[in-house]
Amino acid sequence: MSSGTADEQARPGSSPAGRRPRRDAERNRRRIIAAARQAFADHGMDVSMEEIARRAEVGVGTLYRRFETRVDLVETVFLAKTHEYLAAAEDGLGAPDGWSGFVGYLTRMCELQAADRSLTDVLTVTLPDCPTMLRVRERLYAAQQALLERAQREGSLRADLVAADVVLLLLANAGVVQATGSTAPDAWRRTLALMLAALPAGAGPALPCPHGPESLSSEFQAPRAGRRPGLSELR
User: Fold this and answer.
1) Which of 2, 99, 141, 189 has the highest CB neighbour count under 10 A?
2) So what's the pLDDT on residue 209?
């Protein structure tokens, strides 16, 4: 006599043979996400889908069955991480004063860059097909602006610093991480110390006229010789 009802026996996927493909698919999905996360951290977002499949030990066809486009994979990998960056800014807003909040945020972002080279891409590359990530990134930029303005109102942060300068500081740190990550992995800490020495109110001469946020943003996104391709160019 059968131990299951007729409905249970007829239900698709209720048998061990039916459940196994789903388990295999979920296992492959987890392997792809883990491989992509590490590949992006090691090389940034321009790593190829073929390389991700190789690291995950799956075929390229399997990768594309799980993630139809590169954007789908990037959004899956980076949405949680983008929330982590937002949390760093919100933690800064909760600091007892503007200076410690701003310094804590900048320090944490540099730490995250040192651990994950794809951070700069996440912060600067346009992701037109990732509306959720775009919304989180907009919240991050708003919190970053609030950190800057709070410290300036309190008189601790130089008044001529603008939001676009924070992105420039992170880009500078990203360059140090990329150039020294394998030979001097803590060199970014000295770079950060040099940055922080220039940021208090009254530190050094006035800064040159800044790029506006719009022109700086378009500079990140415009293809140019020697520039790594952005996500939207790597479908």
Assistant:
1) 99
2) 83
